[in-house]
Fido domain-containing protein
Amino acid sequence: MVENDLPTAAEIVTMHEEIEKEYDLKYKGVRIAAPKLTLREKVVEPASEYDDPWHCGAVLLFRIPSTHVFEDANKRTAWAVTMEYLNDQGLEVEFPQDDETIERIVRRAGLFDIEELAEWLKTGEIDESKLPER
């Protein structure tokens, strides 16, 4: 397992705090009383069930926004945490899509399952027809 390589719940919260400062978010902070516990149980532990870093990254990308711990920027936090995690694993991530399409995929990550997201992170291939029209 790659559990020790995954970001901790505290590291996810810290990354979010950095995003809050960088984007000067209107709605700051967390939505729940125990964000670190929730992130550990709903994000980090499920990600640790995978041996493959691509799947771990997919869980981070899928679960951080769906858990909705933060008042704002859950998707931005998920993207930043996922990209940093994969980078820390020494993996290069390249997408054939333009920035706008990548943003649409990240915003709609919940339309895809973990397998599809892992494949996208690994190869850049994903079924864009699942995305709603612009």
